Amino acid sequence: MTRLNNYLGEFVYGAIDGSVTTFAVVAGAAGAHLGAPVVVILGFANLLADGLSMSIGSYLSAKSESDMMKRQGIDTGHARSPRIRGLITFLSFVSVGFIPLFIYVFDLMFGLRSDNNFLTASILTLMAFLVIGYFRSRVTHSGKIKAIAETLMLGVAAAAAAFFVGNVLEKIIT
Question: In whole angstroms, what is the distance from residue 63 CA to residue 94 CA?
Fold first, then answer.
């Protein structure tokens, strides 16, 4: 197993949460009929705050595990670095979590004024879910189809719930 494969779990962890939570923010904003500027603001706030939170959580979890092993006299020489675990969680969260925002940023930068941003974001995010599901199957040593299907269902369910809440609240509030 290569050194990078040692951190594949952190990549999958960050990528799943980054794509699901950011896509949920995008879906909620789309359900509320909010414009691209609002989607980008909320999306980037989510990317930074949630990405930092997840990476800090990953670091502290790994550090606590390492500290406990040291107190028990267990050799931690081959253990994965808590700092690298936190960093990979953050980088995967932000990089994959950016995918649902990409079309909105592109729209703002180049003035597309497209009515299809949410559809495009959905397609791009579904493709990301497929890739994450594949890598998840490698981490869990489970079937590819099962891991991909579970990842897709998780993402679609979160997005549907967020879209519904955004749509309902927009009707109640306005």
Answer: 22
Model confidence over 37-70: pLDDT tens digits?
999 999 999 999 999 999 999 999 989 988 888 8
Task: Please list the ranges in the chain whose pLDDT falls under 70.
Answer: 1-4
Encoding tokens for residue 84?
A: 């690298």
Q: Spell out the domain ranges in the chain.
A: 4-173
Q: Any residues with CB less than 8 A from the CB of 43 and at least 6 apart, and which?
A: 22, 25, 26, 100, 101, 104
- Residue 9, pLDDT score: 87
Spatial neighbors of 5 by CB under 8 A, at least 6 apart, are none
Measured distance CA(160)–CA(28) in Å, rounded: 8
For residue 147, give the 3-state DSSP assignment: helix
The one-letter code for the residue type at 6 is: N
The pTM for the full model equals: 0.87
Name, in order, each residue with C-beta under 8 angstroms of 14's C-beta and a sequence gap of 6 or more.
51, 54, 55, 58, 88, 89, 90, 91, 92, 93, 96
Q: How many CB atoms lie within 10 A of CB 25?
A: 24
